[in-house]
Design brief:
- The protein has 618 residues and is mainly alpha-helical.
- The protein has a two-stranded antiparallel ribbon.
- It contains 26 helices and two strands.
Amino acid sequence: MIIIICDVMGMVEVDATSLKQNGSKELRIRAIILGGFFAMLFSAINGYININFGMGFGYGPLAVIVAYALFHKLGGGSTKKELSFVLISSSSSFTVYYALGFILYLIEREHSVNLPSWLAPPTEIVLMKSLDLQYWILPILFIVVSYLLSILAGVLYALLLKDEFIKSRRMIWPYTAASASLIDTCFSEGGKAKLIGISAVIGLIFTFIQYIPSIWGFNLTLIDLTPFLPRGFIFAISLSLGFICIGYLINVNTSLSLMVTGLILYLLISPLLVWQGIIAYDPNFMSMYNNILFNFSISPALGILLLGGVLLSLFVFFRGMFRKSNGKVSKNNETNLGYLYLLKIFMKNLMRNKRFLTLYAFIAICMLTLAWILNPLYPFPPVISVFFIAYIFFFGSFIEFVITTKMSGETGMSMGVTSIFLYDLPIFSLGYRGYTGYWAYSYFRPSIGVGNGIIPYLKYRDEFDVSLKDIIKAKIAGWIPSFLFSIFFIIFLWKYVGFGNPMMPSIGFLQSEIYLKMLATGNIVGTINPLIFIGAGILGAVLEFLTPISMIGMALGLFLPPNYIVPFGIGGFIRWYTDRKFGKEFYNEKGRLIVTGLMASSLIVQVIMTVILNLIIK
């Protein structure tokens, strides 16, 4: 593996000769160490948030400001190249939280799931929470090898298509452009680092004090009023500073839509469902949450996420066509980054570079060989698996790479819904039923996110004062530590905190479990109510298209346990107030930094204190 990485580095140096080499000072080891540390820290925070709430945040500005404070103010000076290196490496997390964590969650929830030994430890080992190494080596080794091949293929996509994306005026990558401006600002403005430091200390102290009384049985982290309310009403509040901060960071429309939808569900719909006998009443709010989730809210939530997202895309497309037909959109000579055009460019550049061609062929052979040996679509014959992985590797992943890169470059956002149409539906149409195939194919495709981790920095390489070689080094400095750390951290969370509890509600895993179960069993009607699914999807798309309401917020309001609804809403109200009181610039200049410091320290202490308390109680 080390040889392959070094080989890529050598090819990058050859390819980088066509780019402007910037910066007169060599990178110091301190930038590599700090960048790797932040990559692990931010991957832990985002892993926790993604597992529990299905979202994530970028902490690049925080890394830049801290690096500036340490290097420029305390370390005797720094360069733009150093700060850029820390920014890129800290934003280059490559983790297995979802890949490994979901498998463990699925086995614990669905005891009848029979997964191969190369994908997961045996069911009895997982249920015992055993860390017997002999059962973990093979799945972890498979993850390491497949991830390495995946990321190398993704790097090839990025390097061979970078020029086309860079020269497009539409591809601006707004968040990367903002980071470039921040690095310029750092050399004339240093107060932001102090602001983050103070807020992080406050978050740490507040959360630590909040958890201390739990040692003596006094819970200051949760208010549960459900037992005192009329039958069927559910109301609980998590007193988590970190969750309030998340509500502040996400879009106001999303956080407020989440709170309103959740309150309607738990204070209006829930009593009606109990009264009608559709769900059983239980004074425990988590039991009530599970009852209402599996007997009602799954259908509208998935309808909004899946069908609503597709319908909204169609609404936006037809609106754009209508405006064009009425002459409201000006024409230009912008290159059309279509699939066939980019595929032609990719193949042309690949054939010109023999070293890239050799590496691409090597990765393809490895992927297809693994598909033949492991046969992820068993009980289908291995040849079916090989043909399907060939489709994924040579065609499906290329389309997904282009879509993801274009969306992120033009809007700063991306969606994973494309995998449903590119991979899941074709497998389903083959008649495959089982869990392994629908989950395992993701290990056999090039990494589609690598493009957005390399090309934007090349777009603004003069502002960042970096070359392609610097960018690749920074990516590796972030990839390796975050990848290795994530393996140990997710196993640590699974063993000592667990998934699917008040501390780790694991909403992201829950959504994946429901969706995967529908595909694996083919029992779509038995899992969701088709009428509610369709109706909610249409309603969600129409509301987001015509009003400020957020479909993502609505879906989360239906998925999240009741104790998270109010904290998210409080964060949204604070964001709404500061935007109007101090202007929206306050969020970028101070608000985001303050809340990032509070959230990072609060969530870290929250996880640590939960583990310590569990050990003390045991």
